[in-house]
């Protein structure tokens, strides 16, 4: 199945899905030094969640994932608000939004290519 | 979003990677929020200053931007300490060094490094109708509501990008129609000075929109109310009948009505003995500093309660006579930092403050988890005198 969304950061990536059903409070929920979100490993994965929340300093936290070499291969979101949008551009991590994430299962395999998400 | 030829060139990298990256952020945010174009701004206020929050990676990002300079007057949010009080604020050498590196980096970009959440007193004063790009939610709501300037609630990075490009995407509160009230708030009781910050907390939790209030108070009362609203929720503008500058056109036909009962505010009040009285979240106004000094003159401080006032450096500098009275009393007037971003919440466990915003943060574990009492200036000061 192919879902069409909007490109936030261009790029292609294939990886295993780590999915969160609730908004992520980036400054707080994301551990950039250890590559974890709410305790789950996200390094090299494709991270799916509805949107970012909390302090806008969270954009730096997403950059921190890249800085410490712990970045995921991509992000898939319902809505990229200011915190995550600025963060993924800073870190240059392929990102797509405007996706109905209820169609994506945790643990499945995804391919992101520019504005599309393919469930493999 | 429409871009001028000049903007396209920056996006294509003609001015270098730093400018390109920041332009990319503004263009993408503009697309996300359906802005039609970028508009010039008069000033910026940047958050993401404390090393405690942006960390080594934040510093790295700032360095990676290379030789970029701000286009408009730009000021900074508070940092982790007042350099004169490193010991009192429990600042270790690493934090001190890294924090100064961040400040140095911002300074190289041409940013005024006075660090305050109230730049609107002396350092960065917008005018009615000015388009600005401010981060720091308490300054955003003050600038929109009390001054009538126009800013969205910018993020740490979008405000920096706007400062350097000199523009912001035209959406949200930059557009006249979006500044009308969404809710009329009826307050069913008379407000005392101590009630404003608590009322702000209640309203921020209840609505996500633009409240219209029929209440009386001072700019300082509304500053505390607004900061609390912006902290407990995401309100960036309020209107007050016969007081704020845009209330006359604020009411439309499709407005919701909401009543706040006395009990909702009363239930947030606490009666505890405090070990620190902290005033200045947001940083104190010249008037607040004056009220504090005049009250404390010739009074004697209790030994077991500390008094820390937080102010913009400029307010401290221009009103040294009041600072002196407070220091002679035994209080401290700290600059460039605040009770929330410093380690104060980890040093003291029972704190009295005029700030609903500080109460909200300090009571969280991450900031020390203190018990916090919110009250008015004179009641709090009475608990510091013998």
Secondary-structure map:
The complex is a heterodimer of chains A (120) and B (386).
Chain A: E1 2-4, E2 6-9, E3 12-19, E4 24-25, H1 26-29, E5 30-31, E6 36-37, E7 40-41, E8 46-49, E9 52-53, H2 58-67, E10 74-77, H3 82-91, E11 95-97, E12 109-113, E13 116-119
Helix pairs in contact in A: 2-3
Chain B: H1 5-11, H2 17-32, E1 38-40, E2 44-46, H3 51-64, E3 74-76, H4 93-108, E4 112-115, E5 133-134, H5 137-147, H6 156-165, E6 167-169, E7 183-187, H7 195-206, E8 211-213, H8 219-232, E9 239-240, E10 256-260, H9 262-266, E11 276-279, H10 286-296, E12 306-311, H11 313-318, H12 320-329, E13 332-335, H13 344-347, E14 350-353, H14 356-362, E15 371-374, H15 377-382
Parallel strand pairs in B: 2-3, 2-5, 3-4, 7-8, 7-10, 8-9, 11-12, 11-14, 12-13, 14-15
Antiparallel strand pairs in B: 1-6
Q: Would you write up a description of this structure?
A:
- In chain A, 20% of the residues lie in helices and 38% in strands.
- Chain A is α/β, with parallel strands linked by helices.
- In chain A, the strands form 3 sheets. An 8-stranded mixed sheet of chain A has the order 1-13-12-3-8-10-11-2, with helices on one face.
- In chain A, β12 (109-113) and β13 (116-119) form a beta hairpin.
- The longest helix of chain A has 10 residues, at 58-67.
- Chain B is an alpha/beta fold and 386 residues long.
- Chain B has a 5-stranded parallel sheet, with helices on both faces. In chain B, strands 4-3-2-5 form a 4-stranded parallel sheet.
- Chain B is globular, with a radius of gyration of 21 Å.
- Chain B starts with a helix and ends with a helix.
- Chain A binds chain B through residues 6, 8, 27-28, 32, 55-57, 59-61, 63-64, 67-68, 79-83, 85-87, 89-90, 97, and chain B through 21, 24-25, 28-29, 31-32, 47-48, 53-58, 60-61, 135, 153-158, 161, 366.
């Amino acid at each position: 199945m192919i879902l069409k969304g909007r490109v936030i950061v261009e790029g292609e990536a294939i990886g295993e899905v780590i999915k969160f059903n609730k908004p992520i409070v980036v400054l707080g929920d994301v551990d950039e030094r250890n590559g974890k979100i709410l305790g789950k490993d996200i390094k090299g994965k494709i991270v799916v969640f509805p949107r970012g929340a909390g302090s806008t300093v969270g954009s730096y936290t997403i950059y921190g994932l890249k800085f410490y070499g712990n970045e995921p291969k991509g992000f898939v979101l319902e809505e990229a608000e200011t915190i995550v949008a600025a963060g993924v551009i800073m870190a240059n991590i392929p990102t797509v939004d405007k996706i109905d994430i209820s169609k994506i299962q945790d643990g499945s395999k995804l391919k992101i290519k520019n504005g599309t998400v393919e469930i493999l | 979003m429409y871009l001028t030829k000049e903007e396209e060139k920056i996006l294509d990298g003609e001015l270098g990677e730093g400018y390109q990256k920041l332009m990319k952020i503004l263009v993408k945010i503009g697309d996300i929020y359906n802005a039609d174009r970028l508009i010039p701004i008069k000033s910026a206020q940047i958050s993401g200053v404390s090393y405690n929050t942006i960390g080594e990676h934040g510093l790295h990002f700032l360095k990676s931007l290379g030789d970029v300079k701000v286009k408009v007057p730009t000021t900074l949010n508070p940092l982790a300490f007042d350099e004169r009080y490193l010991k009192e604020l429990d600042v270790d050498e690493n934090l001190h060094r890294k924090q100064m590196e961040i400040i140095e980096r911002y300074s190289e970009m041409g940013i005024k490094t006075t660090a305050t959440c109230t730049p609107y007193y002396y350092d960065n004063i917008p005018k009615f109708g000015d388009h600005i790009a401010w981060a720091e939610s308490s300054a955003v709501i003050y600038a929109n509501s009390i001054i009538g300037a126009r800013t969205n609630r910018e993020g740490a990075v979008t405000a920096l990008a706007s400062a350097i490009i000199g523009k912001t995407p035209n959406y949200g509160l930059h557009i006249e129609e979006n500044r009308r009230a969404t809710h009329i708030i009826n307050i069913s009781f008379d407000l005392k000075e101590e009630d404003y910050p608590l009322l702000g907390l209640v309203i921020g939790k209840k609505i996500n929109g633009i409240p219209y209030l029929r209440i009386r108070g001072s700019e300082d009362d509304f500053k505390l109310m607004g900061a609390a609203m912006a902290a407990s929720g995401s309100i960036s503008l309020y209107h007050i009948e016969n007081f704020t500058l845009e209330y006359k056109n604020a009411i439309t036909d499709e407005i919701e009505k909401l009543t706040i009962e006395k009990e909702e505010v009363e239930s947030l009040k606490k009666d505890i003995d405090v070990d620190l009285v902290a005033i200045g979240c947001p940083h104190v106004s010249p008037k607040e500093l004056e009220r504090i000094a005049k009250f404390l003159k010739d009074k004697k401080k209790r030994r077991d309660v500390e008094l820390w006032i937080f102010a913009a450096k400029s307010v401290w500098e221009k009103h040294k006579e009041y600072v002196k009275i407070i220091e002679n009393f035994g209080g401290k007037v700290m600059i460039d930092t605040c009770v929330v971003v410093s380690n104060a919440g980890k040093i003291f466990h029972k704190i009295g403050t005029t700030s609903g915003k500080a109460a909200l943060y300090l009571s969280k574990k991450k900031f020390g988890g203190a018990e916090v009492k919110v009250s008015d200036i004179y009641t709090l000061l009475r608990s510091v005198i013998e």
